[in-house]
Write a structure and sequence with these properties.
Length: about 200
């Protein structure tokens, strides 16, 4: 079981991640209250423990910008949250040799065509950073590793693992208190995942 702590947007968030050692961190490079610039992502990557992969989160971004950040090592993985195509997934992989995660919203779109995608991991979410769960039973028939996002936290992680067995739990808003990442909550999240 893996955990990604997403939406790090302050220097202290990077320090917290270095301390708690999640499997991945996420830098949001799309419009969001947690959005950071490419320059900030570069600075954060330099501060981040090099053993923790950084995932860049994009929504309908120009593939050239994504490829640039991957090639220079600012991010290690691209996570696509918009209307990107299978061709775009393949192009990024081919030009960088880096993994690509593709986010899908089972409540709003047909995920069937994506189940044979070349994406390294499919991520199922309820929306773009909305922080709420969806009907997980929609995922019970999926026979490839996937990530689960959307309202995941200490209160429901064990249930998520028991019900749908995700490869990766992606946590953002529930790693926060008052809208900011919280060290103790992050520590507890990682500790719990290590037990699952």
């Amino acid at each position: 079981m893996k955990i990604k702590l997403c939406g790090l947007f302050r220097e202290e968030d990077i320090r917290y991640a270095n301390e708690v050692q999640p499997d991945y961190v996420g830098f949001v490079l799309a419009k969001s209250r947690r959005q950071i610039s490419k320059e900030t992502a570069r600075r954060f990557r330099a501060l981040l423990d090099p053993s923790i992969p950084a995932v860049g989160v994009f929504v309908d971004a120009d593939s050239r910008d994504i490829i640039e950040l991957l090639k220079e090592g600012t991010i290690d993985i691209a996570q696509l949250h918009g209307n990107e195509t299978e061709d775009m997934v393949w192009t990024i992989q081919e030009q960088t040799g880096c993994p690509v995660f593709k986010a899908l919203r089972p409540e709003r779109e047909d995920i069937g065509p994506w189940l044979s995608s070349k994406a390294d991991l499919l991520l199922f979410d309820s929306g773009k950073g909305c922080g709420r769960t969806f009907e997980w039973n929609r995922l019970k028939e999926i026979h490839r590793p996937f990530a689960l996002a959307g309202g995941i936290g200490l209160d429901n992680m064990e249930q998520a693992v028991r019900e749908v067995h995700p490869f990766l739990l992606d946590v953002s808003s529930k790693a926060e208190k008052n809208g900011y990442k919280d060290l103790e909550t992050m520590r507890e999240l990682v500790k719990l995942v290590r037990k699952l």
